[in-house]
Structures are given as structure tokens and as C-alpha cells.
Automatic annotation (TrEMBL):
Subcellular location: Endomembrane system
Transmembrane segments: 13-33, 94-113, 133-160, 181-208, 323-344, 364-383, 403-425, 446-471, 477-498, 542-562, 574-593
Keywords, sorted A to Z: Ion transport, Magnesium, Membrane, Translocase, Transmembrane, Transmembrane helix, Transport
GO cellular component, one term: endomembrane system
Pfam family, one: H_PPase
E.C. number: 7.1.3.1
Name listed for the protein in its UniProt record: H(+)-exporting diphosphatase
């Protein structure tokens, strides 16, 4: 079997050091962003710079010394920041109550497995050994659930704080040129990416070491209890994604329909009452929600790999370095992403608008290439040359290079999904240009073309996921799939930086419009925003792809834990589960879409009321009542996020308790298979409609100019398409990947209870 080259002591040092390096790097980036001042100041003439001009002269040209603009930007920024903070605090109060209630539920369900006994019991997988009592598992699972939930909430909140801190600074930097604005937005995104990746790793590492003080040699029990960490992370992400998604889209749809279509005023015009709510929404949905979501994926893929490893030779022989292989991959990922980030901020300078999107794409390619080398090194030093992996009751012999391929194929599948998503959602390519062209004949053809594009965009990502599942399972069974998911998420810091960049640029454009800055500056922020839209779609592609792999790995761990030898589709118990599971994503999407629709209805009525009743609003002589619109969005999203959340959280509990583990395994498989398809098509359809509208507005090519300008009939048709796509791409699409992961991880955590007491209905009859 051999032993790993890397000693256990070095492993225990390397993982926290990598996490601390990530946190320090995030703080340095934050300090660099905060150098952009939000208070007007006198500029002494600067010394000549490399262009031969002085900085001072260039700044004068762009009205840099206009104090009013700086003050306006600062005011708008504080309004957005206050709105986002107050919404998140309200949301977290409701979520906090749920968190405590669910923690009690975990304790009661898992404690009752052995009737709350404190006696040691035979281990689940090795009956000849004794393991800690079920009560201990209940207590520690509850603690790790709370840890995961708190880390998830903190990740989302910090991301939102950084984004609202950076948006006006990006606007002000846009006066100096597109390159400066890009660096500010990207650095702020990197702060969030690195904080989240490092915090997730550090908290998990500390939790494992603290739990080990009690569990000692019982690694099987220890890593089973750790799965609660993934459950906590994803359950908070669900509410963050759904709540934030309903908030942002209610405001967006309301602002667009009345402002752009009815009143013919530009996007983000300060006369539009819903404009502040719209900009707040970008931060609570796309930033706080996305942060929690990717943290959940990361936590779950780590937990799935650790659970399988604990019952393989790593866990049985107590090989700590090999056991912590998933955490070592994440550690090397932080270092790789750090180097990759420097390519965007320090090594290359962006001088023209057309360089923005290639610079962001370069980030993905560089991080993937470097990470492949990193995975190779970790696999070589942290794994024995051969070892065995648990494979549904048997032990499968695996070599370390096979595990390297499992992680690498997940990593490269992520890149493929990213680029396919970009091809279907960026207005640089023919699919989106065709959608824009279809707007000539009105909104109906635009909708038909957009839906067709979304369905078609599912094909290649599904093949990429299928190939990575087949290869990684052939090499290393379920553990292979878990580490493939980790491979896809190993460059999470870069992925999140690119992702958070989008909403920050979007806000920057909104602030430029509201502060009344020149047309040239608005053009620059629009270019940043259009690139951000595509990268947001790429981020969603990553999130969905990794969710598919993560939930399959969790599903495998659940099947092993619940002691099901095979899942036979032909048995009625399993088949009814498959049908119901495949229906759940539709039910969930219906709830979230209708919530956005009804909240947007209230918003449209309020915006119309203000335009009709407030004298001087259209002329710009009086200010609209922004606060009422913010309140409508907040109230609607808090109220509407509870039913979809309850659907996802209660389904596994009800099915497992009343119908048993076989039916539940059917439900999990069904929801995974249909959820992935709907999520990809919804996200890409929405992204394509949004960028088709931007394509017409920008008028960059001859073709685009024949469709424009803003306010033309094709443009109005494009706005309607964009409005329909909003809830698809920002509410139901991204929330679906949480649905499939969360149901799987919840089933795994409650598996001991379901295996012992589940299937009440079938026991009665």
C-alpha cells in the first residue's frame, strides 16, 4: 500500500497556512480598493506619467474635480448599502429562527436512532469495532450544522458589504478610464472570493480537529457528524438565493416595465422610484446569495469525499494526510487562484473596452491550467501509491494517478461548461445575435428564439458532466465523483471573483446614471457590465455543474449509509420516487417564478402611482419615494421565500420517514436528473435575453445599429424578453442547484434515522 510522502504534521500546518494566506490576500486587495476616496479632495498637479500627460489633466477632462458628482456617488452608495444591510438583517432574523428549529430537529431525529442511549455501539461498516453512541453523533451533527449555517451567512454578508463598498469607487475610477474601473471591480470581487474560500476551509479544518478530541480513533463517526457542515451551508444558501432572487427581480421587473417600456426613460434613471431597490437587489441576490450557494457546494463536496474516505483504507488505517486530501486540494486552490488574480490586476493592463471579456476568460484558463499542476503535486505527495476505496460494500483498489484524473476531469469539465455557457450567453457570438435579430418581428419571436437557445445550451454541459461521472466512477467509485466535484470547485476563489465582478459593475453603471455623469463614463460602465453578465452566466454554469456532481456523490454516500445494496428502478417504491423527484424542480420553479411575478405586480403599481401622483417627478424637479419600493421588495421576498424553502427541506424528511430509504433514493435521483436540465436552460435563456437587449442598446456593430436605438420597436421587444428572463436566470435557475444538493445532503445526515425507523407506511400495510 505504501504511505504518503507528506507527513501528518506538515498536512496539519499546510491547510491552515493556505487559509490564512487567502484571508491576508483578501485584506490586501480590500486595502487597495479603499485607496479610492469617496470624499471630494483637491488634486495637486501630479508629475508626468508614462503617457506623457499628467494624471491631473486627464482627470480634469473627465470632470474628476466636480465635487458634486463625488458627493452624489457617496450618497447613492450609502443608500444602496443601507438597503442591502437592512434587508439581510431582516432575512437573517427569519432564517435564524429556522436554523434553531432545524438544529433541534436534527438532534431529536438522530438521537432517537438508539433511543438516546449513551452506550458505545458496533460501527456501521466494521461490526467488530465499537464506535461512539448515536447520541454523540446527534450532538456533533447539530453543532456542525450550526457551524456551516453561520459560516454561510457570514460569507454572504461579507460579500454584500464588500460589493456595496466598491460600487461607487468603481464609478469614480471609470472617469480615469476603463482599465482603472475594471481593476477596482475585479479586486473587490477577489476580496469576496478569497475570504469565502479561506473561511470555508479554515472552519472545516478547525471543526475536524476539535471533533477529533472526542471521537479519537472513531473516524467513521467523526466524519459522519461533519456532514452537518454541508447541510448548514446549503440550507442558508437556499434562503439567501430564493429570498435575494425574489427581491432583486421584483425591483428589476418593476423598474424596467414602467421606466423603460412605458415612460421611455433610461435604465437606472434617478427619476425611477424602483431604481435604488433594483441596485440593492443586485447585492443581496447575486452577491450574498451566490456566495452562500458556492460555499454550500464547497462544504458538501468536501463532506461527501470525507465520508466515503472515512470508510475506505484512509479512514480504517488512520492515514491523516490521505484522509485530508480534499482539504489539501482546496488549499492548493487558494494559492493557485492568488497567482491567477495577479494576472488580472498586476501583470496585464486593460486599455480598451474590447479587452475586458478576454481578460476575464483568461482568468478561467490560467487558473485551470495551474490547478492541474497543483492537483498533480498534491496527488503525488499526499496519497499512498495504492489504496482501497469503499464501493457499495466492497473495497476497490485505486492508484494515486487515478485519483489525480478524477479531480482533473472535474476541473476541466467545469471549464468546458463555462465556455459553452459563454458561447450561448455572450453577445459576441451568433446565438445571442440571432435572438436579438428575432426582435425585429416583436416580443413573441424573441421569446421563442430565447427558449430554444436555452434548451439547446443544455446538450454539451450534460455530456461534460456525464463523461466526468463515468470516468471518475470507473477510477475511484463514489469517492472519485466527490473529488471530481471538488476539482470543479477548486478554483472557487477565482470563480467567485469573476462572478462578484458582475453585480459590482452593474451597480457602478447605475450610480453613474443616477449621479448624472457623462455619456462616455456610462459607456465604460456598460461595457464592464456586459462582460459581467456573461461571467455571471459562467458562474451559474459552474454552480450547476458542480451541484450535479456533488449531489451524485452525496447520493452514493446516502445509499451506502442507509444500507441499500442496489437501487432498482423497476421496483414500484423506487419508480414512484423517481417520478415525484423529477416533478419537484417544476413545483419549486413555479413557486419562485410566481413569487417574482406577484411581487413585481405590486412594484409596477407603486412605480406607476408615483409617476402619476407626484408632481414634477418626470421633469426631475422632485425626488421619488425610493423607500416604499425598497419596502415592497423586502416584504415580498421575506414572505415568499418560506414556501419554496419548506418544500425542499421537508421533502426528504417526509419521504424518508413515511416511505423509506428506497423511495427516497428514487426522489433524489429524479430531482437530480430533471433539476440540472431546467437549471441550465433557465439560466442560459435569461442570460441570452439580457445580452440580446444589451447588444441592441450598445449598437457596436452594423447589425446592432439596424435594430436600435433605445426606444425602437425591436429594443422594446428585447426589453420584454429580458424581463421574462429575469426570474429565470436570477431566481429559479440558480436556486435549483441548491434544491438538488440540499435534498441529497439532508438525506445523508438523516440516513441513520431513516435506515432504522423509516418507511412507516410500508411497515403498517
Amino acid at each position: 500500500m505504501g504511505t504518503a510522502i507528506l507527513s501528518d504534521l506538515l498536512t496539519e500546518i499546510l491547510i491552515p497556512v493556505a487559509a490564512v494566506v487567502g484571508i491576508v490576500f483578501a485584506l490586501i486587495q480590500w486595502m487597495l480598493v479603499s485607496k479610492v476616496k469617496l470624499s471630494p479632495e483637491q488634486h495637486p498637479p501630479a508629475s508626468g506619467n508614462k503617457n506623457g500627460y499628467t494624471d491631473y489633466l486627464i482627470e480634469e477632462e473627465e470632470g474628476l474635480n466636480d465635487h458634486n458628482i463625488v458627493v452624489k456617488c457617496a450618497d447613492i452608495q450609502s443608500a444602496i448599502s443601507e438597503g442591502a444591510t437592512s434587508f439581510l438583517f431582516t432575512e437573517y432574523q427569519y432564517v435564524g429562527v429556522f436554523m434553531v428549529a432545524f438544529a433541534i430537529l436534527i438532534f431529536l431525529f438522530l438521537g432517537s436512532v438508539e433511543g438516546f442511549s449513551t452506550k458505545s455501539q458496533p460501527c456501521t461498516y466494521s461490526k467488530d469495532k465499537t464506535c461512539k453512541p448515536a447520541l454523540a453523533n446527534a450532538i456533533f451533527s447539530t453543532v456542525s450544522f450550526l457551524l456551516g449555517a453561520i459560516t454561510s451567512v457570514v460569507s454572504g454578508f461579507l460579500g454584500m458589504k464588500i460589493a456595496t463598498y466598491a460600487n461607487a469607487r468603481t464609478t469614480l475610477e471609470a472617469r480615469k478610464g476603463v482599465g482603472k474601473a475594471f481593476i477596482t471591480a475585479f479586486r473587490s470581487g477577489a476580496v469576496m472570493g478569497f475570504l469565502l474560500a479561506a473561511n470555508g476551509l479554515l472552519v472545516l479544518f478547525i471543526a475536524i480537529n476539535l471533533f477529533k478530541l472526542y471521537y479519537g480513533e472513531d473516524w467513521e463517526g467523526l466524519f459522519e457528524a461533519i456532514t452537518g457542515y454541508g447541510l448548514g451551508g446549503s440550507s442558508m444558501a437556499l434562503f439567501g438565493r430564493v429570498g435575494g432572487g425574489i427581491y432583486t427581480k421584483a425591483a428589476d421587473v418593476g423598474a424596467d416595465l414602467v421606466g423603460k417600456v412605458e415612460r421611455n426613460i433610461p435604465e437606472d434613471d434617478p427619476r425611477n422610484p424602483a431604481v435604488i431597490a433594483d441596485n440593492v437587489g443586485d447585492n443581496v441576490g447575486d452577491i450574498a446569495g451566490m456566495g452562500s450557494d458556492l460555499f454550500g457546494s464547497y462544504a458538501e463536496s468536501s463532506c461527501a469525499a470525507l465520508v466515503v474516505a472515512s470508510i475506505s483504507s484512509f479512514g480504517v488505517n488512520h492515514e491523516l494526510t490521505a484522509m485530508l486530501y480534499p482539504l489539501l486540494i482546496s488549499s492548493i486552490g487558494i494559492i493557485v487562484c492568488l497567482i491567477t488574480t495577479l494576472f488580472a490586476t498586476d501583470f496585464f493592463e486593460i486599455k480598451a473596452v474590447k479587452e475586458i471579456e478576454p481578460a476575464l476568460k483568461r482568468q478561467l484558463i490560467i487558473s485551470t491550467a495551474l490547478m492541474t499542476v497543483g492537483i498533480g503535486i498534491v496527488s503525488w505527495i499526499a496519497l499512498p501509491s495504492t489504496f482501497t476505496i469503499f464501493n457499495f460494500g466492497a473495497q476497490k483498489t485505486v492508484k494515486n494517478w487515478e485519483l489525480f484524473f478524477c479531480v482533473a476531469i472535474g476541473l476541466w469539465a467545469g471549464l468546458v461548461i463555462g465556455f459553452v455557457t459563454e458561447y450561448y450567453t455572450s453577445n459576441a457570438y451568433s446565438p445571442v445575435q440571432d435572438v436579438a435579430d428575432s426582435c425585429r418581428t416583436g416580443a413573441a419571436t424573441n421569446v421563442i428564439f430565447g427558449l430554444a437557445l436555452g434548451y439547446k445550451s443544455v446538450i454539451i454541459p450534460i455530456f461534460a458532466i456525464a463523461v466526468s461521472i463515468f470516468v471518475s466512477f470507473s477510477f475511484a467509485a463514489m469517492y472519485g465523483i466527490a473529488v471530481a466535484a471538488l476539482g470543479m470547485l477548486s478554483t472557487i476563489a477565482t470563480g467567485l471573483a469573476i462572478d462578484a465582478y458582475g453585480p459590482i459593475s452593474d451597480n457602478a453603471g447605475g450610480i453613474a446614471e443616477m449621479a448624472g455623469m457623462s455619456h462616455r463614463i456610462r459607456e465604460r460602465t456598460d461595457a464592464l457590465d456586459a462582460a459581467g453578465n456573461t461571467t455571471a452566466a459562467i458562474g451559474k454554469g459552474f454552480a450547476i455543474g458542480s451541484a450535479a456532481l456533488v449531489s451524485l456523490a452525496l447520493f452514493g454516500a446516502f445509499v451506502s449509509r442507509a444500507d441499500i445494496s442496489t437501487v432498482d428502478v423497476l421496483t414500484p417504491k423506487v419508480f414512484i420516487g423517481l417520478l415525484v423527484g423529477a416533478m419537484l424542480p417544476y413545483w419549486f420553479s413555479a413557486m419562485t417564478m410566481k413569487s417574482v411575478g406577484s411581487a413585481a405586480l405590486k412594484m409596477v403599481e407603486e412605480v406607476r402611482r408615483q409617476f402619476n401622483t407626484i408632481p414634477g417627478l418626470m421633469e426631475g424637479s422632485t425626488k421619488p419615494d425610493y423607500a416604499t419600493c425598497v419596502k415592497i421588495s423586502t416584504d415580498a421576498s421575506i414572505k415568499e421565500m418560506i414556501p419554496p424553502g419548506a418544500l425542499v427541506m421537508l421533502t426528504p424528511l417526509i419521504v424518508g420517514t413515511f416511505f423509506g430509504v428506497e423511495t427516497l433514493s428514487g426522489v433524489l435521483a429524479g430531482s437530480l436528473v430533471s433539476g440540472v436540465q431546467i437549471a441550465i436552460s433557465a439560466s442560459n435563456t435569461g442570460g441570452a435575453w439580457d445580452n440580446a437587449k444589451k447588444y441592441i442598446e450598445a449598437g457596436a456593430s452594423e447589425h446592432a445599429r439596424t435594430l436600435g436605438p433605445k426606444g425602437s420597436d425591436p429594443h422594446k421587444a428585447a426589453v420584454i424578453g429580458d424581463t421574462i428572463g429575469d426570474p429565470l436566470k436570477d431566481t429559479s435557475g440558480p436556486s435549483l442547484n441548491i434544491l438538488i444538493k440540499l435534498m441529497a445532503v439532508e438525506s445523508l445526515v438523516f440516513a441513520p434515522f431513516f435506515a432504522t425507523h423509516g418507511g412507516l407506511l410500508f411497515k403498517i400495510f
